[in-house]
Amino acid sequence: MPNKLNQTQTPGNVSQPLNLKKDGGDIKRKKVRNPHSLHPVMNSIVSIFLGVFTFMCVFPFLYVIIISFTSEESIVRNGFQIIPSEWSMDAYNYLWGVKEQLLGSYGITIIVTVVGTVISVLMISFYAYAISRPQFKYRRFFTMLAFFTMLFSGGLVPTYIVVTQFLGLKNTIWALILPLVMNAFYIIIMRTFFMKSVSESILESARIDGASEWRIFFQIVFPLSLPGIATIALFSTLGYWNDWFTALLYIDNPKLVPLQALLMKIEANLEFMRQNVEVGLMQQSLFDTLPQESAKMAMVVIATLPIAVSYPFFQKYFISGLTIGGVKE
Amino acid sequence: MKRILNDIYKNRIWLIMVLPGTIWLLLFAYLPMFGQVLAFKDFRIHPDGFFASVITSEWVGWENFKYLFSTNDALIITRNTILYNLVFIVLGLVAAVTTAILLSELLNKRLSKVYQTGMLFPHFISWVIGSYFVFTFLSADSGLLNNVLGWFNIDPISWYNEPKFWPYLLVFMSLWKGVGYGSIIYLASIVGIDKTYYEAAMIDGASKWKQIKHVTLPMLKPLMIILTIMNVGRIFNSDFGLFYQVPRDSGTLYSVTNVIDTFVFRGLMTLGDIGMSTAAGLYQSVVGLILVLIANYIVRKLDEESALF
Lengths: 329, 309
Hints:
The complex is a heterodimer of chains A (about 325) and B (about 300).
Chain A: H1 2-31, H2 40-68, H3 72-78, H4 90-97, H5 99-132, H6 139-151, H7 156-166, H8 174-177, H9 184-197, H10 200-208, H11 213-224, H12 226-241, H13 245-250, H14 259-265, H15 284-288, H16 292-322
Helix pairs in contact in A: 2-16, 4-16, 5-6, 5-9, 5-12, 6-9, 12-16
Chain B: H1 2-10, H2 12-35, E1 41-42, H3 50-56, E2 58-59, H4 63-70, H5 73-105, H6 109-124, H7 127-138, H8 144-151, H9 166-191, H10 195-203, H11 208-233, H12 240-244, H13 254-257, H14 260-271, H15 274-302
Antiparallel strand pairs in B: 1-2
Helix pairs in contact in B: 4-15, 5-9, 5-11, 6-9, 10-11, 11-15, 14-15
């Protein structure tokens, strides 16, 4: 019995003082206004002001969701209403009917994002790690090699000619992956990160134990630098997911069009959705009543939803990535 | 010679590690830099591949540049690029710092977190999505703005054909996408300010406004200066998606939406004028390089720690 009592009490006892510490300020604030804080009236004004701006930031997405559930007839008659006069699932039904192109593009985006991020993280961290090590005799040369690309760029047209004519990547999936793999800025950030977070003394003892540099990299350096690597991976994932520019330059084949580029192609009309569908297999009725606008908005919803639901969770890594900061040695 | 080989052997592991990255840099960064010579050539495709094409293309000296600067386009795109960027830099700074200060002063910290998350949303979406968002407001037939105008019996406006609105719209959209992100950088800095400064200010009887003016802002000043100068260094480069996607590539808007990046892109993809668009790109790269060097020089004079190199 006393045992049980103890058990139930302990957690309370532990969390109590912690709670007091945390909320101490708040309690004081409620009773006597903390002189540091805003006047309540001012606070309300600021809250409303920031609230309005926050609302403006997220409203367009909510609005697009509403439009995607509006019947086409209602859109033609009343435009995009905030509260539609007639709700409808037609847009999603229609997209389900022509799902080949949509699923294909989704697949391309996922493959490109996953493969691209993995290659990107490996290549950037190998390069950055090597140039962060004092033992590497040519580190200054390779640092400059990467750094100079931040100052002077080859420009769009020569890059386009190299990718299409020299590397022959036009209309291949590699054209979506390779041009975005490396970025001098990430290399320099990671180099700084490796310098700060991976000290030579830890590595030295592993070397004495006879571990190879590769083993040291994967078993010691990689886990130690996880926050930095996660940040680079996050930037990279987002970059690939949101990329439409490389597709605009290098991809014509409907089978290789990623999601964002698909959205771009259907801006004018939805015809593009049918390119991958055997017309014989399609019900003609599907095309007779095209929910043009609502279907486009439904596509926007489908393409944005993964980001919209996941970014609040990885946001904190993203913010910590911003403060990895310092580019210099 | 033997010593060099010996050095290479000793550094082989590191060299293997930088090898993939080096190959990438050579192919995707340095080869295009070499390709910039096309700005001085009349590009002709040669069957023996890329190098043969570049080398056998005929030298035309400054012809491409002369052609570029003989039209009105060069002036317009340079003006648009610089003016838009200047406005983005000034308003972006004011909005980000203001928002950061307000977020930090908010009594309800949980609400502050919710606001931060909401404001970051635009940063995570692409301009393609952004252009659909804008379209829901500006569509001539169905857009929200024309609907609202309809309530007041004002004739609908064909937004995508009216250049006069677009400078404001583009500035607004740039702020919409960037303020959340910018304010979080400043907010991180504000959170780091030592609270005793504020206590000292209070004892001297400083009001909230005076505390912000004499403590918060001076503490943020170094960060503000560094970020601003870095942005000025990039003033010749613009956010391609904002100027290409958001106006939906509408031809009637080119006078106010065409910037160097979109000009080069259209020169390549729609006109196929390799020489002239390479020349425009080289013009951008060279001026950009000079601006970054100047900006970095100034940063180093102000605060050596923050300089890029």
